[in-house]
Amino acid sequence: MMESRLSRAWQSDFLWSFRRSPTAVVSFFVVLVLVLGAVFAPLVAPHNPFDPSSLNLMNGFSKPMQPNAFTGEAFWLGTDDQGRDVFSTILYGMRISLFVGFCAVLFAMVLGVTLGLIAGYSGGMVGTVIMRIADVQLTFPAILVAMLIFGIAKGFTPVHLRDQMAVWVLIFAIGLSDWVQFARVVRGATLVERKKDYVQAASLNGRKAVGIMLRHILPNVVGPVLVIATISLALAIIAEATLSFLGVGAPPTQPSLGTLIRIGQGFLFSGEWWILFFPATTLLVLALSVNLLGDWLRDVLNPRLR
């Protein structure tokens, strides 16, 4: 029984399309390797870069794959000015970037889908107000909205909790700046679905509006939502890196890829290129792979291309 189910799943249109797309396969495995490396960073990383007792300032500015002139230690991707292994800092930095990206997209998805369902199903003044707010927010660049929200939210955070709450404030800021795309797509799909016979029948049978939206309409708008979520993940990771690079994101005690890039940028013109190059390359590869997966998913779930 289990083998037959696995066989049917393997022969499904979804996995068949995945196997036939080299871009999707390569992107998936790149994302998988990076995510696993971040999740299991304490086991994979040669050093804990944020443990002061394990640092040796004599290892500072070690070049990639070359023994340090003072200690004789060699590091795959070199070290930064404090002697921290760049490879280890990238793994630990990806943990923050991926965590912020996933949580921000999840928050934006829940908020956007909820408001989109309400706006599309209820209509009237409620729907108009929600979509006008969305239209106003779309007139501003998302990164500026995130910076504004981050600044306001951080201002309401007690001073002694700002470093501990910085990541959560960052998630709130990015998520609140990215809900509009979900809401617009879900509202459009809801306007189409609510006129269909099965929704009218459920309404005549006495089902409440919340039940109709969650049980009947929501499953039919999941496809577009998954595509937006995948693409938004790459944008959220880039937004987090941008905010951290500008110094308004993750705190120095919890550096993300953006923080590492900001640190490395200060040493670029003094010859220590690897401190910037490897974190920036990791961010580029991660965002590109997630975007390519999103493009493939959009094509697979688009009925016009089947």
From TrEMBL:
Domain called ABC transmembrane type-1: residue spans: 94-294
Residues passing through the membrane, by range: 21-45, 96-121, 133-153, 165-186, 217-239, 273-297
Membrane-topology descriptor: Multi-pass membrane protein
Primary localization: membrane
Residue stretches in coiled coil: none
Lineage top rank: taxon: Bacteria
Keywords associated with the record: Cell membrane, Membrane, Transmembrane, Transmembrane helix, Transport
Keyword Cytoplasm found: no
Assigned GO CC terms: plasma membrane
Protein name: ABC transporter permease
The species this protein was found in: Pelagibius litoralis
